[in-house]
Amino acid sequence: MDALATLPVFFKLGGKRVVVVGGSEPALWKAELLAAAGADVEVYAETLAEGFRALAESPPDGSVAINLRRWQPDDLSGATIAVGAIKDNEEAAAFATAARSRAVPVNVIDRPEFCDFQFGAIVNRSPLVLAISTDGAAPVLAQAIRSLVEGLLPKGLKLWVAVAKTWRREVERIEAVLAERRRFWDRFADLALREAGRAPTQADLDELLAGAANSRHRHAAAGSATIISVSDAETLTLGAVRALRCADSILTDEGVPSAVLEFARREARRLVIGCPGPGEATSTTGIARLMIAAAVDGQRVVHLKLASASNIDGVMRQAEALRAAGLPTTIILTALPI
Prior knowledge:
Elements: E1 17-21, H1 25-36, E2 40-44, H2 52-57, E3 63-67, E4 81-84, H3 89-101, E5 106-108, E6 121-125, E7 128-132, H4 139-152, H5 157-172, H6 178-194, H7 202-218, E8 224-230, H8 238-246, E9 249-253, E10 269-273, H9 281-294, E11 300-306, H10 312-324, E12 329-333
Parallel strand pairs: 1-2, 1-4, 2-3, 4-5, 8-11, 8-12, 9-10, 9-11
Antiparallel strand pairs: 6-7
């Protein structure tokens, strides 16, 4: 994995005490956000922006209590997190120090030097929640990206995520190996994205469960193989991304950019292999044998083959060997670098 500027985490704040210091509009927004996450928010401020009292009377969730006074260090004791809308450097430093001395993660709005954590731009399809961060470098860009992502995710998708909590109990009753349950959720994800404009139904669950049961017999002998000819992550097709997301094992040529593997599941088995040159039929056949050996008990195997104009024949020979062994095989060709 490449280095991360910050670790994306999600706090469960239902019923937890959270402190917000400041009565400005940015503090109001953070108080509303924290209450929406179910927190019991305690606001400390000598003056309040319009909207605070309405928020306290009708929070989106959780609760909001207003204390019309300056904050004190002991106010932070027992808090889960603390947020301050503080412009003065000395006060901001004192607030951060008081929180940290009580083991309370702290955020001072728009003051990253005093922050233990940051709020990203949020896409709310709760219980599906996405957060986008630029590590404080370009918050306007994060907001622009959020708008793009919101356009890609229909609001109805939240209904599918919500029902997954209930359906998970049904899936756990399936007498199946882990790979079969994985196939259930792969099909669920495909259906949810395809039918996000409507609510899920019992018929959808019945069909998915029947498919999982049938797969026990259909995939008993062999799984499937996909050969993806790839040059870089930007040229991947939707089909290639879907194959990587579903893969149980991934064979990768030397030289395939690491960014391509970011689309794969973390738990997928991975093997880097030598990249056979033009005319190396033995190496191509050897790779096909590796894929056949991996594609047992319904396993899905992907070979990320470094794209070049000279290895198309090798791709075809490899696919022929896989199909001759009875393994369903798909070829996905992406654009060659110019």
